User: Fold this.
Amino acid sequence: MGLHLGLISNIISTSVAPHFLEEYGIDGFMECVVLSSRTGCRKPGAEIFRVAERALHLAPEEFAYVGDTLSRDVRGVRNAGWHTAIQIENPSVAHRDVGMKELGLAPDYKIRDLQEIPGIIREINKQIERGNICDEGKY
Assistant:
């Protein structure tokens, strides 16, 4: 699909995330891996997202982000001004988001399976092509 893939994580280790990417056989698909342990910045702050923008040479409106928390991921996407926030349901981290819905924070899309993402990206690109979305960027 011509997507640029990367990882942004608040992990305190410098080796765990790269290890898991390699173990799952997807490390070769990641064009950038941005870790708070290396950058010194954390989600939901915008700066960790800016690191990914610089690494991929893309503008904020060209990004869709998939994460599992409102408090770090969706909030971070909003802080960074990225185009789309996709939240994958993860009951094990629901405790991190207590009170977030009351603040009006919501993802653009909520999914249960990563296989839903290509369809979402195709739909967004169709809307952009039709002029239904004002952003210049495409994924």
